[in-house]
Amino acid sequence: MLSIIIHPPFWQTWWFITIIILLVITAVSLIVYSITRARYRRRLVILEKEKALQKIRLQLSQDIHDDIGGNLSMIALLSDKIKDNPNAGKIADMARNAQKGFRELIWSVNPVHDDLANFVYYLRNHANTFFENTAIETVFDLPADIPTITLLPNVRRNLFLTYKEALNNVLKHSGATQVFITVKIENNQSVTITVQDNGRGLTADITNGNGLINFKHRMDAIGGNFQLVNNAPAGLCIIFSAPII
Fold first, then answer.
1. What is the pLDDT of residues 42-53, one digit of tens each?
2. Which of 36, 92, 118, 230 has the most beta carbons within 10 angstroms of its beta carbon?
3. So what's the architecture of 114-245 in CATH?
4. In the β-sheet with 137-141, what is the strand arrangement from edge to edge?
C-alpha cells in the first residue's frame, strides 16, 4: 500500500509558531523596557532638577537670614538706644515687624519645612504667638498621626497665607474671646483647615475687604476650595482645603 505524507506549510509548523511567539514576547518586552527606561530617565531628570532647586532654596533662606535678618536686628537695637528721637520707637517697631515677615518668608522658602507634619505644627505655633498678648484663647484640634507627605512650596505658602489672613480677621473684626482651629487630613490626599471664632459673625469690614477675594484666589491657585459659614451673632467659620499630593 502506498502511503502519502503531506507536510504542512512551514508557517503552520510548531517550530515556526514557537519562533513567532518568542519574537512577539521579545518585541513586547523590549517595548515595555524602552518605555520604562524612558520614564525612569525623565524621573531622574526631574529629581535632579528638584534637588538643584532645593539647594537654591536652602541657600536663599540662609542668605536672607544672615544678611537681611541681621541688619534688621541691628536697626531695632540701635533704635532702642536713640530714645530721644521721637521716631526711634516707630523705626524699632517697623524693624521688628519686618523681622517677623522675613522669618515667615524664610520658613516658606526653606525646603526643610516642606513636610506636612512640620506645616501643621507651624500653624499651631503661629496662632499661639499671634494671639499671645490678646484676650483671645486658641483651641486646637489637630490630627494625632500626620502622614509623611512633602508639600509643594506653592501649596504650603498659599495655605499658610490664607490661614494667616483668617487669624488676622478674627483679631481685627470678630470681637471674639476664643478661636477654634481644626486641621484634618483626608485619605492622605487633601488637608482641610477650619478657623472658627465665637465673635459677632460676618461684618461689613470683612465683606467689603480684600480678604475674602484673596482667600478664593489663593485656593484657586492650588486647586483648593474655600467656604465661609456666617453664624452671626455667634461667630464666623472659615473653611479651606487643598490637595496635598
1. 766 665 666 666
2. 92
3. 2-Layer Sandwich (3.30)
4. 137-141, 178-186, 190-197, 236-243, 225-230
